[in-house]
């Protein structure tokens, strides 16, 4: 439980990576500083391989290290993902992502998204998600339930 109050954060960030016009790209990211009355360090690494102009694969790992001034306030959370993208054309793309984290027991999910850009600045998304529902880090979390979601999102720009 974080006490009610006014908190100020000082955060710093360092990012480094390879040129993005290559077949194999990578990036490193570190953010650190104050977090509530403690500290939070975030480290990320991401690699992407573009097999051709239509197909790409990405692998990423993120480590969050919390150091908070209360009982149970020192802990870490790992979060990893594997993403695949396939472009049928400039206007139609299929993306899948598998995610895992250590904050929840059996914390894993899969997401499949089809995006159709039918006119400038207007899209339709069809999304299917399956996996464990990600919950807060509170110790009193209820039992994690398997979840299946299907969503369709439609956007329309009145002035392209």
Description:
The protein has 160 residues and is mainly β. The radius of gyration is 19 Å and the shape is globular. It is built from no helices and nine strands. The model has no long low-confidence stretch (mean pLDDT 89). A hairpin with a 6-residue loop joins strand 4 and strand 5. A nine-stranded antiparallel sheet has the order 1-2-3-4-5-6-7-8-9, with no helix packed on it. It has a single domain (11-154), classed as monomeric porin ompg (Porin), CATH 2.40.160. The chain has strands spanning 11-17, 24-35, 38-50, 55-67, 74-87, 92-101, 107-119, 122-132, 146-154.
Brief summary:
0% of the residues lie in helices and 64% in strands. It has strands at 11-17, 24-35, 38-50, 55-67, 74-87, 92-101, 107-119, 122-132, 146-154.
Overall number of strands: 9
Q: How many domains make up the coordinates?
A: 1
Quaternary organisation = single chain
Q: Any idea what the shape is?
A: globular
The helix/strand order is: EEEEEEEEE
Mean pLDDT: 89
CATH superfamily placement: monomeric porin ompg
Q: Would you tell me the structural class of the helices and strands?
A: mainly beta
Largest β sheet strand count, sense and barrel closure: 9 strands, antiparallel
Notable features of this structure?
mainly beta; 9 strands; Porin; 160 residues; nine-stranded antiparallel β-sheet
